[in-house]
Amino acid sequence: MYAKLAIAAAIAVSVGACAVQPYESGISGHSPANFNYKSDGENARALLAASESGKAQTWAVSESSYGAVSASGPAYPDRARRQCQPLKHERDGAARQVTACKGADGTWVVAEWVPDKGE
User: Fold this and answer.
1) Separation CA 107–CA 99 (nearest Å)
2) Rg of the chain (C-alpha set)
3) Of 18, 70, 95, 98, which residue has the fewest beta carbons closer than 10 angstroms?
4) Which stretch is the leader sequence (predicted)?
5) Cβ neighbours of residue 66 closer than 8 Å, sequence gap 6 or more
């Protein structure tokens, strides 16, 4: 009987812990990086558009939330035969080099590493 109560209590605590908001502010879009969902969406759209077209893309949500993405070199196939595009990625005043590669299924992967070029 006590074992069943202990198991039920453990399950109730586990379920309750899952329902707790991870951030105290309760603001929609709050994240540890302090970006809101609108800026994350605009950033993702700019990365995708620049990867697809190779043309510079900019976005701005507010004076403190803005960015730009531009090609930083020619597109090339990597060893896995994915089309890769080196990009200069700027967000809220910070810049970094990233590489976007498009898989056979059409999914883009953006990373800070550069895959080896094909031979």
Assistant:
1) 14
2) 21
3) 18
4) 1-19
5) 58, 59, 60, 91, 92
Question: What digits encode the pLDDT tens for the residues 21-46?
Answer: 343 444 344 444 444 567 788 888 88
Task: Give 78's DSSP letter.
Answer: B
Query: DSSP readout, 70-86?
Result: EE-S--EEBTT--EEEE
Torsion angle of the four alpha carbons 28, 94, 42, 24, in this order, in degrees rounded to the nearest 10:
-10
Q: What is the pTM of this model?
A: 0.63
Residue 119 has which token pair? Answer: 């031979």
What distance in Å separates the CA atoms of residue 16 and residue 10, rounded to the nearest whole number?
10
